[in-house]
Amino acid sequence: MDNPRDFLTLADWSAPELRAILDRARELKDLDKRGERPQTLLGRTLALYFEKPSLRTHVTFEAGMTQLGGHAVLLRPEQVGIGQRETAADVARALSRWVDAMTCRTFAHELVEEIARHAEIPVINALTDRYHPCQIVADLQTIAERADLEQATVAWVGDGNNVAASLILGASILGLELRVATPETHRPDPRVCARAAHLARGTGARVSYTADPVEAVRGADFVYTDTWTSMGQEEEKAERQRVFAPYQVNTRLLEHAPEAWFLHCLPAHRELEVSSEVLDGERSIVWDQAENRLHSQKAILERLILGPF
Fold it and tell me: Which residues are annotated as catalytic?
């Protein structure tokens, strides 16, 4: 059997492939607005394995499978028992006999990689401590609704976390200008930055790094932030709030980007990484961003289960 195509990191996908997914996501969204839901995954089943809490990712994958005519099965770690009841490899082999694809939301990225190595079905990374590729596809769809991707300038302000890592890769593949503003102590993984620099060759992408949020935001078309304390970092919360305080996205910071749209992958912590005035303001497109998780993930599911468009 041929090895299935997985969606573990954007770095594994080419610019034409990602653009095709984005085009299909836009098409699916347009169809949905007209009340049309093509049953392309009729009779197909998706397994959802979630170690971490989830609202947007869980609902959009399950609803997406339903809208495409398929079905999703939620698996909690306590019932599966990877590493206790049986190995990740054995779980992957068993699920490969029952379902058509598997979505994993885990702490360790290595666990998703191990599952994918042994699975005979496509495996989707629905968030690990290292990457969040599905979020970035929705973000790129949201940006493309308001700007030419190759002409867009995006500023990331805050932590160099898993979302930032995937955004850096996505921008490098598709030719965006991305300015990443983080404290020196919380920059993105150097391995990600090196991979992105390699991917950016020939695409026209310009990715830069700074500790100054004003420098990053000045004249940007989109300003993006995320929580300062991700799941599993709760013990660092007080220290992180101190370090990241100068990186709050508020009206004062956005004065340096008077035309910029505001992005946040949610959930948001009001008055920490973003002020309520910005989050609820007329330049906030976070709800479009959240909605696009549904349609972009439907496109990802179609691509992995059915093959190229």
Answer: 105, 132, 135, 226, 265, 293
